[in-house]
């Protein structure tokens, strides 16, 4: 399809347990580089929301710096909050690379759609804003059309069991991930990226939480 990879297309589906979601995301574009952050405030409800909201404000005003430095800079200023699990990605369109860094339990997957390979990437343990953290950064290459998935721990299950969802537009895949895998016992957020050449475009959808079985 012509122009298929014209944009970095980002689909987000959020399923909050309460009126304020303790799971959140931030996308910032620097022209050629795109920063994507997903965060899960400890627990859920208002105080979890406040931790992620503090992080959002920090990321929005942060100067450009390497991802581990950015996370440490936020960490120091989040000590009065409950803390959050955080994953940060920096997409470089010219070099076709993804650099990632994270603290705590945010899952990160790279899906090479054309061959159906799904790789999980590990984050360093800890909680941003609490005790000591030691973020590191890892870089890998991508091909346009590959997908990335970030999700919080309100999503659990075998993502490799449903390969068909990776061929959908990212906003649809994000909804599929929530429908198939949200636990219904925590806030849940799935952010899917279809890698491309142009400026990022974000499509967000809020879903109602599943009733707990
Ligand atoms: Mn959670």
Keywords:
single chain, 213 residues, alpha+beta, Phosphatase 2c, domain 1, 5-stranded antiparallel sheet, 3 helices, globular, binds manganese (II) ion
| Radius of gyration of CA atoms, rounded to a whole number | 16 Å
- Strand order, main sheet: write it out: 7-6-9-10-1-11
Number of helices: 3
Please bin the fraction of helical residues: 10-25%
What is the general shape? globular
Assign the CATH topology: Phosphatase 2c, domain 1
Tell me the β content: 35-45%
- What is the fourth-level CATH superfamily? PPM-type phosphatase domain
Question: CATH architecture, please?
Answer: 4-Layer Sandwich
> Number of DSSP strands?
11
Largest sheet: 6 strands, mixed
Query: How many domains in all?
Result: 1
CATH class assignment: Alpha Beta
Cα separation of the termini: 42 Å
| Ligand catalogue | manganese (II) ion
Mean pLDDT: 93
Order of helices and strands: EEEHHEEEEEEHEE
Low-confidence regions: none
Alpha-beta classification:
alpha+beta
Pfam families: SpoIIE (PF07228)
Protein name: PPM-type phosphatase domain-containing protein
InterPro entries: PPM-type-like_dom_sf (IPR036457), PPM-type_phosphatase-like_dom (IPR001932), Ptase_RsbX (IPR039248)
Structural overview:
The protein is of the alpha+beta class. The protein has one domain (about 5-205): PPM-type phosphatase domain (Phosphatase 2c, domain 1). It contains 3 helices and 11 strands; from the N terminus they run E-E-E-H-H-E-E-E-E-E-E-H-E-E. The strands form 2 sheets. The chain has a 6-stranded mixed beta sheet with strand order 7-6-9-10-1-11. A hairpin with a 4-residue loop joins strand 4 and strand 5 (about 95-105). The longest helix is centred in the first third of the chain and has 16 residues, at about 45-60. It is globular and about 45 Å long. The protein binds manganese (II) ion (MN). Manganese (II) ion (MN) binds near residues 40, 152, 153, 186 and 187. Manganese (II) ion binds near residues 40, 152 and 154. It comes from Tumebacillus avium. This is PPM-type phosphatase domain-containing protein. InterPro entries: PPM-type-like_dom_sf (IPR036457), PPM-type_phosphatase-like_dom (IPR001932), Ptase_RsbX (IPR039248).
